[in-house]
Structure formats: C-alpha cells, structure tokens
C-alpha cells in the first residue's frame, strides 16, 4: 500500500512482472492518513503481518515542515496500529531510523545507546516507536523495530 506521494509505480510493475501469479503482489493505492481507507483494506484482506515502511523521510524537510512529519509518521502509525488491533493482526515490523539516536556521546551506536532525537523526523519516529512499544506491553502483538542507517 502506498499513496505514491514519493514512490514509483514503475517499481511495483517490475515486481508484478517478475511474480505474475494472480494475487501474488497486490498493490493498493491509498493514504495511511485516511483511517476509513485503511480499515477498509484490513476488512477486505487477511493479513498475517504488517510491514510499515510508508513515510516521508527527510531530516531537512522535517525541520521546515514539522507538522507534516508528526502527522505522516506518528499519527499514521497510530492509524495502522488501531487497524491492526481492530482486525486481529498481531505481527508488526516497523521501519524506524538511526535519527532517533540524535548525536550520541559514544560511538559506535548500539541498541543500548540512549535515543535523544534532535530533529522532528527523529522525534516523530521515536514517538511512533514509543506508541508501538506501549501497545505491545499489553497486547499479543509481536513487534520488530528496525532503526535503519543509510
Ligand atoms: N532509506 C534509508 O536509508 C532509510 C533510513 C532510515 C529510515 N528509513 C525509513 O524506511 C522507510 C522507507 O524509506 P525509503 O527510503 O524506502 O523511502 P521512500 O520514499 O522510497 O518510500 C516511502 C514510501 O512511503 C510512501 N508514503 C509516504 N507517505 C505515505 C502515506 N501517508 N500513505 C501511504 N504511503 C505513503 C511514499 O509514496 C513512498 O513510496 C521510511 O519509514 C523511512 O523513514 C529509511
């Protein structure tokens, strides 16, 4: 699922050509900021798991337009989690970022490094991580958070 705001349908078409079996690679054009659309997608499909990677992802842009980032990253993650909970989908892989670490005192960064993000992009992802982990504590949801470095 993608709203193609930054994505390229050509890449999906290449993959669909490689895996042409009916239903093997379904593409759904929708915006994660639209809870009704997201819930409809969950109602019409049977998902084993969600891999949530769809987001805006530029540090510089996030400082110029922070509300866009908190909405697109933090608020949309809440929409995804609520839809998963409502439809009993219990496995989530979430794409976070090394920007959640900010500027650590010690290198290299490890999973024990404190997360102190210094820009809206990193802060929005850290908030989304916190929401996911708080929900995970009192639910059956299995969660993996990837903090990607470029
Ligand atoms: N590429 C990296 O090095 C890197 C590093 C750290 C984190 N990440 C994270 O990985 C994920 C993917 O990054 P990428 O580099 O592949 O970016 P990308 O821009 O290539 O892919 C993100 C996709 O999300 C879609 N999207 C954005 N907002 C949407 C919305 N509201 N609804 C539906 N689709 C939406 C865009 O159209 C785009 O296709 C992001 O969450 C990003 O924060 C990537």
From TrEMBL:
It holds the Pfam family GDP_Man_Dehyd. Residues 7-149 form the NAD(P)-binding domain. SUPFAM superfamilies: NAD(P)-binding Rossmann-fold domains. Gene3D superfamilies: NAD(P)-binding Rossmann-like Domain. InterPro entries: NAD(P)-bd_dom, NAD(P)-bd_dom_sf. PANTHER family: UDP-ARABINOSE 4-EPIMERASE 1, UDP-GLUCOSE 4-EPIMERASE. Belongs to the NAD(P)-dependent epimerase/dehydratase family. This is NAD(P)-binding domain-containing protein. It comes from Ambrosia artemisiifolia (Common ragweed).
């Amino acid at each position: 699922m993608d709203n193609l705001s930054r994505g390229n349908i050509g890449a999906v078409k290449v993959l669909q050509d490689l895996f042409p079996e009916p239903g093997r690679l379904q593409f759904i054009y929708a915006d994660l900021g639209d809870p009704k659309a997201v819930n409809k997608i969950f109602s019409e499909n049977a998902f084993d798991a969600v891999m949530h990677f769809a987001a805006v992802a530029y540090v510089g842009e996030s400082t110029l337009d922070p509300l866009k980032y908190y909405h697109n990253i933090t608020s949309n993650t809440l929409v995804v989690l609520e839809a998963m909970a409502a439809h009993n989908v219990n496995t989530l892989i979430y794409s976070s970022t090394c920007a959640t670490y900010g500027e650590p005192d010690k290198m290299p960064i490890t999973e024990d490094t404190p997360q102190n993000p210094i820009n809206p992009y990193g802060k929005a992802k850290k908030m989304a991580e916190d929401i996911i982990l708080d929900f995970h504590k009192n639910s059956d949801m299995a969660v993996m958070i990837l903090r990607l470095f470029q």
